[in-house]
Amino acid sequence: MNSFGTRPGGPEGTHATGTGDFSDLLRRNGNHSIPAEILRASAPPTSTEATTVLSFHFKDGVLIAGDRRATAGNVIMYDRADKVIELDNDTILAIAGTPATAFEMARTLQTSFQYYRRSQLQPLSLSAKVRALGRLIKDNLAMTLQGVGIVVPILAARDPHHQPEPSLYFYDALGAQFQAVDFAVSGSGSPAARSVLQWINRWSGQPTSQRDEKQAVQLALQLLDVAAESDSATGGVDRRSHVFPQVKLLTRDGLRSVSVETLRESFTALEAAQK
Amino acid sequence: MTEEPYRWLEAIQNRREYIEDQLTPGLPVVAISADPGILLLTVKTSTPKLFEIYDHLALGSLGHPADIEKVRQTVIDAAHIDGFTRSPSDVSARRLVSYNLAPALKAAFEQIFAAPLLFRGILAELGTTPADDAIWRVDYDGSFSAQSGTELAHGMVISGPRQVARDWAAQTPKVTLERGPLKTAALSALRLLVWAKLRGTKDQGIEFSAVPTDVAALKEKLGTEALEFALLDRSLLSLPITYRVPSAEELGL
Fold first, then answer.
1. For residue range A64-86, what is the model confidence (pLDDT) as tens digits?
2. Would you say residue B207 lies in a domain?
3. A51 is a catalytic site residue
4. What's B188's domain CATH number?
5. Regions of chain B where pLDDT drops below 50
6. Do A93 and A109 touch, CB atoms closer than 8 A?
7. In a domain? residue B18
8. How near does any CA of chain B get to the CA of A10, in Å?
9. Rounded mean pLDDT of chain B?
10. Closest chain A CA to residue B69
11. Which of A9, A23, B107, B188 has its CA 20 to 30 A from that of A148?
């Protein structure tokens, strides 16, 4: 870029003042997320959602967690994958699906949010952030239909100025967004976690929204452990290598990661209670 | 007209004189590198003149607000494209100025049939330590200069009258500003701001040593209480955002 460019759609010769749309800027600079050859290729569908990410409302806000395992078919490729990603100080994305596409979406959103804030001198609204992720998923339709690039994420976000209470959103593979009232799960191990969460919220007498932070963190570890029991693509808690899931909290006070030490203590306490 | 070289030169000269004339009322902007970070300071007006550009980059500017906006947007676009396609650590003020901003400004300046860009700016880059900081001065014609290492002790200033920055750079021996804690750096920045404003207006012979060291007296000389300031905060370097607007109390202003 070495000129003060023309604004797309504007009269010829006018200068860009910016729309704050980073995806548009990428396109104008010839940076397409999906190469045309891939769009034309026909490949057999492969397994695409091998993971478990989950989130639920607890007393102080929203908890969002994910296991660390990355697989390719039956092979465990990596056991320290970060699937719960901070997009900015008020937004967390948990990804289930094809890592290459999911990580690129996360990176695009991270840059998009900062780009908008800096260029427009105001932060992107909560609803625009929610829609931005839906649009990326929709733009990924060709990959989704071919079964090689499906991404079904969960988003936890808040607007510190207008809506400080965090909200929870989940998406379908075509980009439709839904606000979760109590919890949201995604990935191949999620049916087990969903069943447990439904039972807890309906019959346990202590729904997740009434649990404090300590109880919420313990529940997240239990849910991922249960999911890992029935889903080989979910890592759960790796007791031998001491690899713990990622757990992040979004509250009125902001975003926070639960430390590995805290997770270890929580899980040890859970195990001790069983003896 | 452009087929006749002497007329082209005349047109460029007229263009330069017009731009300089338009920029003359522009209030100075100061940047100073210190231990807590890089502080940018100017007089507050109805439109902002200090901006966040990228994780570790900030822009101070003067000129026409619409032209400042064009330049600001161009630098932000370039920085974010570069940071996205490579990595945030590959985004540097040197590359932005040398390969994006300066060529674009020069091209715009030499398009004699188009309206000129009324812009003068400072691009500040925060490093891991003060020795790694860099502060770049960029002008409407694409010319630029940089300060780094020990030169940073001198501070950077731009002003409407171009001569002010030249006078500051040409001083022998160069003034070494006190840059310790944030309040000390802020006081030095305010003194430089007052010097630049006086030098560019009613007291063109003023020496820096004659500038008051008291905040109230400095504001009186400045003719206003309202200041605009921004800090690239070194303590935030591990985070994606180092740009913040400190409180006046924090700066002792």
1. 999 999 888 888 888 899 999 99
2. yes
3. yes
4. 3.60.20.10
5. none
6. yes
7. no
8. 15
9. 93
10. A17
11. A23
| Record: contact B100-A18, CB cut-off 8 A | no
- Tell me the CB-side half-sphere exposure of residue A131, using CA atoms within 13 A: 6
How would residue A14 be classed by pLDDT, with cut points 50, 70 and 90? Answer: very low
- Render pLDDT for A138-186 as a digit per residue (tens, 0 to 9): 998 888 888 778 889 999 999 998 889 999 999 998 999 999 999 999 9
Q: Which residue has the tokens 């809506």?
A: A163
Domains contained in chain B, number: 1
Shortest Cα–Cα distance, A225 to chain B (Å): 32
Among A103-117, A230-244, A249-263, B27-41, which is the least confidently predicted range? A230-244
In this structure, is residue B22 part of a structural domain? no
The residue annotated as part of the active site, out of A14, A48, A51, A268, is A51
Q: In sequence order, which ranges of B150-227 are alpha helices (DSSP H)?
A: 162-170, 182-200, 215-222
On chain A, the residues whose CB falls within 8 A of the CB of B103 are 2
Expressed as residue numbers, the domain containing B92 is 5-11+27-246
ipTM for the predicted complex comes to 0.93
Q: Which residue has the higher pLDDT, A11 or A68?
A: A68
User: Is the preceding peptide bond at B173 cis, omega within 30 degrees of 0?
Assistant: yes
Q: Which of residues 90-109 of B touch A (CB under 8 A)?
A: 99-100, 103-104, 107-108
CATH number attached to the domain at A22-273: 3.60.20.10
pLDDT confidence bin for A33, thresholds 50/70/90: low
Which positions 27-86 of B are in contact with A (Cβ < 8 Å)? 48, 51-55, 69-71, 73-74, 76-78, 80-81, 83-85
d(CA B175, CA B210): 12
Give the model's pLDDT for residue B173.
Answer: 81
Contact between A25 and B241 using a beta-carbon 8 Å cutoff: no
- State how far the Cα of B163 lies from the Cα of A189, in Å rounded to an integer: 69
CB B40 within 8 A of CB B29: yes
Of A2, A31, A108, the CB nearest to B103: A2
**Residues of chain A positioned with their CB less than 8 A from the CB of B102:** none
Q: Provide the chain A residues 86-105 that lie in CB contact (below 8 A) with chain B.
A: 88
Strand order in the sheet with A246-251: A183-186, A53-58, A61-66, A246-251, A254-257
Residue of chain A whose Cα is closest to the Cα of B51: A118
**Pairwise pLDDT comparison (A12 vs A113), residue with the higher score:** A113
Residue B20 in any domain: the answer is: no
